[in-house]
């Protein structure tokens, strides 16, 4: 499935849909697709990451989203699943990986970028994971991903008396600007994927909103966290106060949700 027709040894796969995509690629679904030079079709794609027989890294985009979703669900349950997209479903074959992987295919050379003469015609840049030693939009979104995954650990670090920034207050102009932009999404819908809702414990939902220079992670029954490009490595908590519950409820109503 690689450019030289060698077999692709599949290591992992992720979904690239309006409601669920690797946020490292962009603030929304169209931006993530543009990063991979894919059309932002509503049905989305599956991204299959693997190595060819020489160990080179390749990312295969397939429009067989159901196949990839089934594989990911099986792997999450500890089950085996042979993920082999048909050639007719392949939308693009891209050199490199957009995500950092700690695994490699057995019996082949260590993961490395494909040689220039084996890459597709069309001049695709080699995909590389973001440098975690730097701070920027990709790292900010990765930070938000980590908070969503480790919510309980981050929540324990925050005092329950953190106050929500009311519309008329300006104790932290960066925080106020972001919250104003979040509210604006309710009246002027952003590109697909800017607001996403995922399952959380109980009846709660985990909300994720992104925008120019900022990311927000929140739980509908709790507080929110903000990360800003202009505040490297900082995580700003926003308490529930009198306004946040209604804002989160309204966001959840317009957020995209992964297919069940």
TrEMBL record:
Positions of region (Disordered): 105-126
Domain of life: Bacteria
Protein name: Integral membrane protein
């Amino acid at each position: 499935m690689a450019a030289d027709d060698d077999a692709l040894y599949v290591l992992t796969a992720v979904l690239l849909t309006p409601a669920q995509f690797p946020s490292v690629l962009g603030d929304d679904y169209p931006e993530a697709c543009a990063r991979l030079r894919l059309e932002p079709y509503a049905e989305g794609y599956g991204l299959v990451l693997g190595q060819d027989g020489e160990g080179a890294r390749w990312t295969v985009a397939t429009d067989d989203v159901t196949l990839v979703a089934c594989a990911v669900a099986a792997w999450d349950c500890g089950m085996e699943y042979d993920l082999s997209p048909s050639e007719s479903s392949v939308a693009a074959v891209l050199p490199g990986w957009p995500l950092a992987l700690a695994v490699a295919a057995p019996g082949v050379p260590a993961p490395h970028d494909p040689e220039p003469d084996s890459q597709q015609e069309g001049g695709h840049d080699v995909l590389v994971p973001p440098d975690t030693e730097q701070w920027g939009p990709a790292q900010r979104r990765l930070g938000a991903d980590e908070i969503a995954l480790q919510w309980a650990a981050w929540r324990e670090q925050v005092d329950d008396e953190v106050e929500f920034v009311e519309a008329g207050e300006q104790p932290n102009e960066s925080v106020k600007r972001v919250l104003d932009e979040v509210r604006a999404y309710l009246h002027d819908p952003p590109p697909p994927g800017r607001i996403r809702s995922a399952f959380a414990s109980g009846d709660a939902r985990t909300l994720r909103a992104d925008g120019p220079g900022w990311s927000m992670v929140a739980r509908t029954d709790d507080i929110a966290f903000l990360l800003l490009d202009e505040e490297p490595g900082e995580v700003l908590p926003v308490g529930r106060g009198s306004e946040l519950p209604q804002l989160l409820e309204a966001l959840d109503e317009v957020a995209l949700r992964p297919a069940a």
